[in-house]
UniProtKB/TrEMBL annotation:
<dbReference type="Pfam" id="PF07670">
    <property type="entry name" value="Gate"/>
</dbReference>
<feature type="transmembrane region" description="Helical">
    <location>
        <begin position="291"/>
        <end position="313"/>
    </location>
</feature>
<feature type="domain" description="Nucleoside transporter/FeoB GTPase Gate">
    <location>
        <begin position="107"/>
        <end position="218"/>
    </location>
</feature>
<feature type="transmembrane region" description="Helical">
    <location>
        <begin position="442"/>
        <end position="466"/>
    </location>
</feature>
<keyword id="KW-0812">Transmembrane</keyword>
<feature type="transmembrane region" description="Helical">
    <location>
        <begin position="6"/>
        <end position="26"/>
    </location>
</feature>
<keyword id="KW-0472">Membrane</keyword>
<feature type="transmembrane region" description="Helical">
    <location>
        <begin position="257"/>
        <end position="279"/>
    </location>
</feature>
<keyword id="KW-1133">Transmembrane helix</keyword>
<feature type="transmembrane region" description="Helical">
    <location>
        <begin position="333"/>
        <end position="350"/>
    </location>
</feature>
<dbReference type="InterPro" id="IPR011642">
    <property type="entry name" value="Gate_dom"/>
</dbReference>
<protein>
    <submittedName>
        <fullName>Nucleoside recognition domain-containing protein</fullName>
    </submittedName>
</protein>
<feature type="transmembrane region" description="Helical">
    <location>
        <begin position="230"/>
        <end position="251"/>
    </location>
</feature>
<feature type="domain" description="Nucleoside transporter/FeoB GTPase Gate">
    <location>
        <begin position="334"/>
        <end position="435"/>
    </location>
</feature>
<feature type="transmembrane region" description="Helical">
    <location>
        <begin position="198"/>
        <end position="218"/>
    </location>
</feature>
<feature type="transmembrane region" description="Helical">
    <location>
        <begin position="102"/>
        <end position="123"/>
    </location>
</feature>
<dbReference type="InterPro" id="IPR052549">
    <property type="entry name" value="SpmB"/>
</dbReference>
Amino acid sequence: MALSRIWSAFIIIAISVALVKMVCFTENNKAIFTQMVTGKANDTIKLRTTDSIQVNALLVQKLNTQKVDTTDGILTTKIANAQYLQFKIQTADGVVTTCTNAVNICLGLIGLLVLFMGFLAIAEKAGGINLLSRLIGPFFTKIFPDVPKGHPAIGHMMMNFSANLLGLDNAATPFGLKAMESLQTLNADKERASNAQIMFLCLHASGLTLIPISIIALRASAKAANPLDIFIPCMIATFVATMAAMLIVSFKQKINVLQPVIILWVGGITAVIALLLVYLKSLSGEGLQSFSGLLSNGLILFVFIAIVLGGLYKKIDVFDAFIDGAKGGFETAVRIIPYLVGMLVAIALLRTSGTFDAIINGFKYCFAAIGADTRFVDGLPTALVKPFSGGAARGMMVDTMKTYGADSFAGRLACILQGSSDTTFYVIAVYFGSIMVKNTRYAIGAMLLADLVGIITAIALCYFFFG
């Protein structure tokens, strides 16, 4: 029910904002409905011209032009005959293209889901998932009290968390979907999210990642003086967000987090991460990328060979087991299409209507009015978009670095915000949609609250490290 209300609110707010802009600011917003419905990202929108001549983007490219200003994504072009035109690049697809993109995302997931769920089926029949569940059981049974000790769901969740930790998004999604399926077998009300499912998704959406290698690479491409300078702030922010997610859900579910087992596991994980941070900090940029590639890709290959060898040792038909599991991957990808289309369309309307821009301007005005430092506001678009779309947030991060500079306060903050959380609404749509859960209970609120903790932590860390 909560998801239904939020989805409806997104659509109503977006269309209302667009209507107000068209009525009150007609000069530059006559085509806003067209942009929202049929527009495409990177379309050039004409905002103003000095005469009545209609000049499109292709003609402008052919003319002898000179870029004058690119502030806020606006391109002012000086034409040879002294006419001035102003264009804005559309930052998001309209509804029509978004629907196609949503289906393409699901189709793109099919291969990965088939592959990883096929290997998971081998691991289950060989007893590997049960073995992993027994190893992690003492900790997981405390924060997932409704999951029986040794249940396969524990192994699936652990594989998801491990993939996330190493930044293996492609592997994390199939493992996470399989974990939700396993937890659904324990769920008495199949249309209502269980406590265990909410805890799992909140921990997953907190986005704990050990090495933000993609962010570092994008900073390097943006000519940052030291692309690695956001590494430690990113790691701390995402770890704080994960701990916040665990504490928030534990409080709601009345789980005692002061139990010795939980304290020892959390303390041990903290110590390991701290030691690894010290080691990674000593590496050069090339050394970090090399270590990250070796660790992440090597681990995937190790898991594959370990599963196959385990299956052969247990004398099971590994290929038949792979095919049985792979069929489930295809079915899952098709099942999430309606949920993903619905959510991404609502998000696209918010972005193309200018609602995000209005929110950012409102934040800046409010903080400026009370005399507070407003530098952090320029980095906030990444945080606002991240719960809706990882790709959009990445684009916002790159745009912020491009506009203000990779080594600016806003540029660094956008990078830390990008690494401090996950795509909450995307996760809700895909993971709950895969098991047909309609009542998400307090999952969205808990995830967004954990995101807020991550955002506040990221801002504080940016001021602490970069002034």
